[in-house]
């Protein structure tokens, strides 16, 4: 399966794509840009024999609907990782963790979650094919290139995919404000799949029923919910903290 977008923007995202093994068709640079500020990117393109073209700002504005910082790359589509391939390569010498995003719709949230996932070594991210944001240029930019390093699985049926994860030894941890334990009491001494629900509705009923346990983030203020990417980041770092105690 492949994402449909073939454009990424922003200096960090483009540089990360060029550094990786992703196939770059062309890099477009805005006329008048201070090339000393992107010299490392230009040197990488020269080293990898990637075509670099200088174009008017209007050209970049036309191709991108998000801020581009004067740099845009035209790339082969991003490929999703098949769940079966991901599970066949599951590491046996460490505890594994993936994030399941149940109906997330904001591309900035997905990009931010991918960025944090890369920062602490999360093994992969799963999203449903329907009623969910996909890998697009906004996600790629928000991830600052981390999408190149974190496998993203896009599945037709998230409930069936959870069953396959369970068969592979994963425990499913859901996030829910009711009938759950404080996330600081969460056991991380097993392979984990952590579910983050959609921005408005949370987890679907069927996904919630498949969870082995539920956790919540305590809140003492006036707002009763957190941004999905913030909640995901707190949970990912809590797993990291438990598995990597400070001496």
UniProtKB/TrEMBL annotation:
Pfam families xref list: SpoU_methylase, SpoU_sub_bind
Alphabetical GO biological process terms: methylation; RNA processing
Classification via SUPFAM superfamilies: alpha/beta knot (SSF75217), L30e-like (SSF55315)
CDD domains for the chain: SpoU-like_RlmB
Residue span, RNA 2-O ribose methyltransferase substrate binding domain: 7-81
Similarity comment text for this entry: Belongs to the class IV-like SAM-binding methyltransferase superfamily. RNA methyltransferase TrmH family.
Keywords: Methyltransferase, Transferase
Protein name per the record: Putative TrmH family tRNA/rRNA methyltransferase
A GO CC term assigned to this protein in UniProt: cytosol
GO MF entries: RNA binding; RNA methyltransferase activity
Domain of life of the native organism: Bacteria
């Amino acid at each position: 399966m492949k994402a449909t977008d073939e454009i990424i923007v922003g200096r960090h995202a483009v540089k990360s794509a060029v550094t990786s093994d992703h196939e770059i068709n062309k890099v477009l640079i805005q006329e008048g840009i201070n090339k000393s500020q992107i010299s490392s990117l230009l040197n990488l393109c020269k080293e990898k024999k990637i075509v670099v073209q200088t174009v008017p700002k209007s050209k970049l504005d036309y191709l991108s609907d998000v801020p581009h910082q004067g740099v845009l790359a035209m790339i082969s589509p991003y490929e999703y990782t098949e769940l079966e391939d991901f599970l066949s390569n599951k590491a046996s010498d460490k505890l594994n963790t993936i994030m399941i995003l149940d109906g997330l719709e904001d591309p900035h949230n997905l990009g931010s979650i991918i960025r944090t996932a890369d920062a602490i070594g999360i093994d992969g991210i799963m999203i449903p094919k329907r009623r969910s944001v996909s890998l697009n240029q906004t996600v790629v930019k928000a991830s600052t290139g981390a999408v190149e390093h974190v496998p993203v699985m896009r599945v037709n049926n998230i409930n069936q995919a959870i069953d396959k994860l369970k068969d592979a030894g994963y425990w499913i941890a859901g996030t829910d404000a009711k009938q759950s334990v404080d996330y600081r009491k969460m056991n991380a001494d097993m392979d984990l799949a952590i579910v983050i629900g959609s921005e408005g509705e949370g987890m679907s009923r069927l996904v919630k029923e498949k969870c082995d346990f539920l956790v919540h983030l305590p809140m003492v203020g006036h707002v009763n919910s957190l941004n999905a990417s913030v909640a995901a980041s707190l949970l990912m770092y809590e797993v990291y903290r438990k598995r990597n105690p400070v001496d």
